[in-house]
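re: ur msg from earlier - yeah i can do the flavin mononucleotide complex, just paste it... oh wait u already did. ok heres what im feeding in:
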Amino acid sequence: MDVSEAVDSRLSVREFLKNPVDDALIKELLEKSARSASGGNLQPWKIYVINNETMCSFLKFQEEWSEPETPAYAIYPENLKEPYKTSRFEVGVQMYSILDIGREDKEGRFKQMLRNFEFFGAPAAFFCFVDRQMGTPQWSDLGMFLQTFMLLAREAGLDTCPQEAWAMKQESVTAFVEAPDEEMLFCGMAIGYRDPEAPINDLRTDRRAIDTWTKFIKK
Ligand SMILES: Cc1cc2nc3c(=O)[nH]c(=O)nc-3n(C[C@H](O)[C@H](O)[C@H](O)COP(=O)(O)O)c2cc1C
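and the outut:
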C-alpha cells in the first residue's frame, strides 16, 4: 500500500469485528508514528493503550462509573459558522440516513452516539493526552501524530476511529488510566478491523472543493 492508498482508504470506522489486535503491533505502529513532525520536536503526545482484557475491565469500569463528568473542552466552537456548520450537519444527515435513523428519532441518534463509549466494538484503543502546559501549536502536533498512526494502521490492514467524544468522559478515563493531573485528555482512538458488512462503514464523507479553501497567490 502506498501513502495515497492509505490516505484514501482511511475512514472513521464505526463498527468493528471482534478480531483481536496484538499489543506488539500497536506498539510498533505507535513507535513509527512518533516519527511525526512536532514543533521544536516536543513530541507532546501521551498515549494510554487499552487492549484485550483491559478493554473489558475499562468498559466495565465505565458502566459502573456513576459520578457526573465535566467535558475536558468544548468540542466545537459556539455558534459554528459557515461553511463548517453545513459540513457538520451534512455528515450527520449522511450517517443517520445510512443507519435508517430518522431526523425526529432523538432516541435512535442518542443510542448511536453512545456507541462511541463502546469504541464501536473495537477490541483495542488508546487515549491521547497532552500536558496542560501545551497550547494550540502542540495540539496540532497531536493531530499529526494521530493521522500518522491512522495511516500506518491502514498499511497494517487495521482501521481506526478518532474520538473526541471521550472528552465528555474525562474524569472516568483519567481515573482508569491513572493519568497525572498535569495531563488532559484530547481524544480516544478505536483500533481494530472494520466490519465489512456494517452499512455505517460505507459512509464516504464529502470534502469541500479545493478552491473554497486554497488560493494560489500570483503577484
Ligand atoms: C480529532 C477527531 C475527533 C473525532 N471524534 C469523533 C467522535 O467522537 N465520534 C465519531 O463518531 N467520529 C469522530 N471523528 C470522526 C469525524 O467525524 C470524521 O473524521 C469526519 O466526519 C470525516 O470522515 P472520515 O474520517 O470517515 O473521512 C473525529 C475525527 C477527528 C479528526
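cool cool. Residues 11-12, 14, 91, 116, 161-165, 187, 205 surround flavin mononucleotide (CB under 6 Å). ping me if u need the other ligands too
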